[in-house]
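Figure 3 (text version): structure tokens given as input.
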């Protein structure tokens, strides 16, 4: 802890609206930890919703904590930065600048596998024993939740006293009273009691299946921006969740598994939240995995526009893509429209259950062009199961066709192709599939770039090497925890060194295709159908 760190936090607080400052007297102090930077975390609607939910409880005080590396700014441009600097500083709470050891509960919200490294670094830097078995009543209770934890809690399980499987709003009402009563008393008795709560996974008392919990009525717990700041990725917006879950069920997608069933907030609830939001921001960000799937999306957008709102959306599905919604998004100032065909050939799109054909894609691009958007971002994956070089050739042909459509009304329009390696996710249809070999992925990226040379199309690709790490963490088990614990810094070389020291075959987790008899590390999770 240093005065410079305190000064940095107070400077951030001075630029915020909506931070909750509560007296700690007689209350359960919870540190809500997002294991990535403030810049990224403050645009995470899940953190905002949990922060509001906990601080509305009269016997609880919740303060935010973010991952603080030795060098704080400039903010990262992606969800993960490789830390080469050993000077990780102890993270302090935003509201009071207290250290983590002052809190009764440390609650991690984990959204990305590559943030697992930051979880370990934060706990170690705080001076708290990293492994749950080494902690006692003098230490905070360390818990976690989030989509990654719901799918497969095992790689981080040895670090946590308990893990919430499902959605926070469905889990916290039962957890908080128990934590308030027993956090500073008999730790083992508390954990045994928590293990009896539906949806709570206590690694040391793991027995039967743990059933994922979810909120049936979204209107009962609004999710919108609570603390606003310009010092964040989406700082010009007031965010409102309009849906949760997805009905389309793509075979690779974690969202459709971790957040099913698809649920929608009522029009009346959304308009009320928007009315509040417009007091703080002119631009409203509508959040959901398939925003245009909301049954009253056109009426919602029309009403919001009449209220004077500029509208942005977190996702636009290729089908359905109502022109009215697209037009309002572009008129609201959105410079780039993003669409996700995911696979280049129709054979592969059918295989992954994408639910669209080439005609749907080209029609959607035509709508984007007519709406007046000047930039189009297309998301694809390489290395999907059964993929061949022919699928890459089809991808290049499709992207060129999209470019031609965009260029008709606006020759100066630009297309960016963002390509990510397929990473198998626990709980999905492809959970037993292995990630394609690194050499194959590199060869297919080279092929794609060669086929698009001279087209003016900008190609960006995620790191294949870090995607390989992500795949190992996604399908990992508890044997990966000591590997992360042994890493002084987070780098590919250090990851490989620590895994080799532990005698682990990372290829087994990341690349091996598992047969039906292979026991899954996350077998204790009962994801349920959510219907």
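Below: residues designed for each position.
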């Amino acid at each position: 802890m240093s005065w410079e760190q305190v000064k940095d936090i107070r400077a951030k607080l001075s630029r915020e609206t909506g931070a909750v400052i509560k007296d700690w007297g007689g209350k359960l102090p919870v540190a809500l930890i997002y294991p990535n930077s403030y810049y990224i975390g403050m645009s995470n609607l899940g953190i905002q919703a949990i922060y509001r939910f906990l601080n509305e409880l009269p016997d609880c005080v919740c303060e935010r904590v973010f991952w603080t590396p030795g060098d704080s700014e400039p903010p990262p441009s992606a969800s993960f930065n490789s830390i080469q600097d050993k000077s990780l500083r102890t993270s302090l709470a935003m509201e009071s600048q207290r250290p983590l050891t002052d809190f009764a509960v440390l609650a991690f919200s984990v959204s990305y596998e590559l943030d697992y490294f930051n979880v370990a670094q934060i706990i170690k830097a705080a001076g708290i024993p990293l492994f749950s078995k080494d902690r006692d009543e003098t230490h905070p209770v360390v818990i976690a939740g989030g989509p990654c934890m719901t799918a497969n809690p095992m790689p981080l399980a040895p670090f946590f006293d308990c893990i919430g499987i499902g959605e926070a709003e469905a889990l916290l009402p039962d957890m908080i009273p128990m934590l308030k009563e027993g956090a500073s008393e008999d730790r083992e008795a508390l954990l045994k009691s928590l293990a009896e709560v539906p949806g709570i996974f206590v690694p040391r008392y793991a027995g039967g299946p743990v059933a994922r919990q979810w909120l049936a009525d979204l209107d009962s717990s609004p999710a919108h921006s609570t603390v606003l700041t310009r010092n964040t990725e989406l700082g010009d917006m007031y965010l409102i969740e309009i849906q949760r879950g997805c009905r389309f069920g793509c075979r690779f997608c974690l969202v459709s598994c971790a957040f099913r069933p698809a649920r929608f907030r009522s029009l009346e609830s959304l308009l009320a939240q928007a009315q509040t939001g417009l007091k703080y921001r002119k631009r409203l960000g509508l959040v959901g995995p398939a925003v245009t799937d909301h049954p009253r999306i056109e009426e919602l957008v029309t009403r919001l526009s009449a209220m004077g709102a500029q509208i942005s959306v977190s996702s636009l599905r290729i089908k359905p893509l109502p022109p009215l919604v697209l037009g309002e998004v572009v008129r609201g100032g959105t410079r780039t429209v993003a669409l996700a065909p995911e696979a280049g050939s129709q054979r592969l799109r059918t295989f992954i259950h994408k639910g669209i054909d080439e005609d749907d894609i080209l029609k959607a691009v035509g709508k984007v062009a007519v709406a007046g958007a000047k930039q189009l971002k297309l998301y694809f994956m390489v290395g999907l199961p059964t993929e061949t070089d022919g699928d890459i050739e089809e991808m290049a042909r499709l992207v060129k066709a999209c470019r031609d459509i965009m260029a008709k009304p606006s020759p100066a329009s630009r297309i960016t192709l963002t390509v990510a390696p397929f990473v198998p996710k626990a709980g999905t249809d492809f959970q037993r599939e292995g990630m394609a070999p690194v050499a194959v992925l590199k060869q297919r990226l080279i092929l794609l770039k060669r086929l698009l040379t001279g087209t003016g199309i900008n190609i960006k690709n995620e790191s294949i090497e870090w995607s390989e790490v992500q795949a190992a963490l996604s399908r990992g088990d508890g044997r990966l925890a000591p590997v992360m614990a042994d890493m002084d810094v987070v780098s590919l070389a250090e990851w490989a060194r620590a895994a080799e020291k532990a005698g682990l075959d990372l290829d087994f987790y990341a690349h091996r295709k598992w047969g039906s008899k292979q026991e899954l590390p996350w077998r204790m999770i009962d994801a349920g159908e959510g219907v």
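Residues 389-407 form the longest helix (19 residues).
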